[in-house]
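INFO batch 0412 | record 1 of 1 | parsing
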Amino acid sequence: MRQIVASKIVKCEVVDNAKPGTETPCAEIHQIQPLLKRPKDLEGFTYKVRTPLSEAALYITINDIIVNGKKRPFEIFINSKNMENFAWIVALTRILSAVFRHGGDATFLVDELRSVFDPRGGYFQPGGKYMPSLVAEIGECIENHMIKIGMIEPMEVTPELAAKREEAKTKGVTGGSQCPKCNQMTVVKLDGCDTCLDCGYSKCG
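INFO prediction complete | emitting tokens
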């Protein structure tokens, strides 16, 4: 349920030489007001993220607020010793926090962030999962947090998919192509068959 309220402002135009008894034309301006207010204290989690793009780790803090008895993200902060991406990271956290604070369904942010591809190429996480960009990694961190607080249902990992991921980790798979099902760059060849390590898609069935 979207947590927003609409307020109505009536703005009347002053008309010179208006005849007595005539109504002054008015325009209704509808404004959408944020409903969520920040309490003094918030609880949250801080996640440490390491990538091959930098020796310095990212520390992602997501604070939650309780709305109608359920937790939802209210704000996000990202910090790192590496200041190379400081400007766009600050901009990203402010935009994400603004979306969180306006209420409503914010789960769409996960898909938006995870679909960002770095033109210089992505990287593989330990275990063989491909990250197309640092932004996608931030999106996955938000997804994991939303799963933890109950906003998103976790994807069911079948024993077959778990075994494929473990096999990829053991063999040290370092390359992948795009999956036609989930669009992630996680399709690798295992035992002569193209297999997606993210959703389990396989050409061999």
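INFO post-check: Residues 1-11 have pLDDT under 50 and may be disordered.
INFO record closed
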